[in-house]
Amino acid sequence: MSGHSKWSTIKRKKGALDAKRGKIFTKLIRELQTAARMGGGDPDSNPRLRLIIDKAKQANMPKDNIEKAISRATSKDVEAFHEVNYEGKGPHGVLVFVECATDNQNRTVANVKTYFNKAEGSLVPTGSLEFMFNRKAVFEFEKTEGMDLEELELELIDAGLEEIEEHVDEEEETTTVYCTGDYTSFGDLQTAIEGLKIDVKKADLQRFATTPVEFSEEQMEDIEKMIDKIDEDDDILAVYTNIA
Predict the structure, then answer these.
(1) Cα(168)–Cα(177) distance, integer angstroms
(2) 155 phi/psi in degrees, rounded to 5
(3) SS (HEC) of the chain
(4) pLDDT above 60: residue 7
(5) CATH fold of the domain at 81-244
(6) Under 8 Å CB-to-CB from 68, ≥6 apart: which residues?
C-alpha cells in the first residue's frame, strides 16, 4: 500500500512539473513567434529572436520545438500573436506592469482585469505607469578566474553597458556577474559579450521600478497571491512590480 502511495505521490509531482514546463513552453513559443514575425526568422540578424532562443534552450525546450515555432511564425495559417501591455494597481497600492503576447486581446484584457479586481485592485490607462519603470537589457554569467571586471567594463561600455554588479554566493562558491544596459542596445551588448567568449547563463529584457517601495510580510502575501494568479495565465509573458 505504501508503495502505491509513494508512486501516486511521484506521479502527482511529475504531473505538476510537466504542467509547469508545458506552460513555460507555451509562453516561449508565443515569444519566439512574435519575435520572428517582427524581425525575421534569422537569429543572426534578429537579436531579440536570439535572446528568446537562448531562453528556450535554458528551459530545456527541444531544438525541434524551437525550429517549428520559428518556421510557423511566417505561415499564413497560424494565428498571429500581438504584444500588448497592461498596467494596474494591486493590493496595498503596489504598481504592476504586465507584458503579454496574445491572439485574442479581448480574452486577455478580460482575464487580466479579473485578476486585479479579485485582489481589490484595478487596471489604469495604458502609459500611466510606464515612466515609473526603466527597461534594461540584463546579462548574467559566472565570473571566471582571471576575469577583470574593470577591464570588462571598458570593453563593453561602447556597446551600451551602464553597470556591472557582482553577487557572491559563499555556499556554492560562485560569483555571478550582472551586466545591464539600455534595452535599445541589447543586440550590441549581446554581440560584444559573445565576442569576448563569455558563457552567458541568462539574457533578458527586464523592467526596473524607478522608485521601489517596501511592503510588510502580510501585505506581500496578498500581493504575491495576485501576481501568482496573473503569471499562471498563458498569455502573460512577464510581470513587474515596484516592490523593493
Answers:
(1) 9
(2) -65, -30
(3) CHHHHHHHHHHHHHHHHHHHHHHHHHHHHHHHHHHHHHHCCCCCCCHHHHHHHHHHHHCCCCHHHHHHHHHHHCCCCCCCCEEEEEEEECHHHCEEEEEEEECCHHHHHHHHHHHHHHCCCEEECCCCCHHHEEEEEEEEEECCCCCCHHHHHHHHHHHCEEEEEEEEECCCCEEEEEEEEEHHHHHHHHHHHHHCCCCEEEEEEEEEECCCECCCHHHHHHHHHHHHHHHHCCCEEEEEECEC
(4) no
(5) Alpha-Beta Plaits (3.30.70)
(6) none
Q: 148 exposed, middle or buried (CB, 10 Å; 0-12, 13-18, 19+)?
A: exposed
Q: pLDDT digits over 178-214, tens only?
A: 999 998 888 899 889 989 999 888 888 889 999 999 9
Locate CATH 1.10.10.200 in the chain.
Answer: 2-73
Residue 216 pLDDT: 96
In the chain, which segments carry CATH 3.30.70.980?
A: 81-244
* Homologous superfamily of the 2-73 domain (CATH): Integrase, N-terminal zinc-binding domain (1.10.10.200)
